[in-house]
Amino acid sequence: MPVDAGDYVKIERAFEELRAFGYFAKQNFQCCQSCGCAAVPEEFAERYVFYHYQDAEDLERDGSCYLAWAGDFGLIERILHRNGIYTEHDGEPGTRIYIDTTREPEPPEPARIVSISMEDAQFLRRIAETVRGYPPPWPEEQTWGDFERELGRVTIRLIHAMGYAMPAYEVVKEQRREEAELDEFINEMLKEEQDDG
Fold first, then answer.
1. Bigger pLDDT: 100 vs 5
2. What does the CA dihedral 75, 76, 78, 84 come to, rounded to 10 degrees?
3. In angstroms, how far is the first alpha carbon of the chain from the final one?
4. Which of 8, 49, 71, 132 has the most CB atoms around its CB within 10 Å?
5. SS3 state at 197
6. Residue 25 CB coordination number (10 Å)
């Protein structure tokens, strides 16, 4: 089925959104994939999405084509779906994304409801407030190491709440490794201060 004006609008909106997320996103770009990849500006070498002249002919003929891409596939796919564009992909970074403007995208998976404690919720709220630029709402006696350890504990509890037992185990191991490295760094700093004194 040939692409119509409404389908082009969906693609244009998706590409506009990709550009807003810092991607080099172009339609009908260069004669082929090799030339297109070569023409992508260096600063966008790891964040681009485009289809070339030959793809544009396929798109005009039957409403589908392939997109060359680099970057966060999950983000690219969500943006395409959000703009009503069906996609297929095998998960390999070197494989182009198939799009079909004549088909509806798969509905997103329902959000997982996670129950967490009020204490964890308050801790996560403090993190969000800090990220948004508010003054750090941490007690004066709390160190950065204390914060990192608490963040690790909350992360592990959240992973358990979502039902991912093995990843939680891996996070515990990683957290313990990071704590050991942090303690070693702090001890080295204290030793240097003592030596200087």
1. 100
2. 160
3. 79
4. 49
5. coil
6. 25
Q: Count the alpha carbons within 13 Å of 124 in the hemisphere toward its beta carbon.
A: 11
User: What is the pLDDT at residue 130?
Assistant: 58
Q: State the DSSP H helix or E strand holding residue 4, giving kind and residue range, or none if neither.
A: none
In the predicted structure, residue 165 carries a pLDDT above the cut 70: no
Q: Are the C-beta atoms of 99 and 85 separated by less than 8 Å? A: yes
CB atoms within 10 A of CB 152: 17
Who has greater pLDDT, 96 or 129?
96
Cβ-Cβ contacts under 8 Å for 51 (sequence gap 6 or more): 27, 28, 29, 59, 65, 66, 67, 68
State how far the Cα of 158 lies from the Cα of 69, in Å rounded to an integer: 33
- State phi, psi for 138 to the nearest 5 degrees: -95, 150
pLDDT of 149 > 90? The answer is: no
Encode pLDDT of 51-82 as tens digits.
999 999 999 888 899 999 999 998 899 899 98
Look up tokens 């891409």; give the residue: 69
DSSP structural state of residue 120: H
Query: What b-and-e string marks burial along 163-177, b requiring 16 or more CB atoms within 10 Å of the CB?
Result: eeeeebeebeeebee
- For 93, the 3-state DSSP assignment is coil
Say what the pLDDT of residue 86 is: 94
- pLDDT at position 68 is 96
* Residue type, position 89, single letter: H
Among 15, 49, 51, 47, CA closest to 32: 51
**C-alpha dist (Å) from residue 45 to 17, 22, 168:** 18, 12, 34
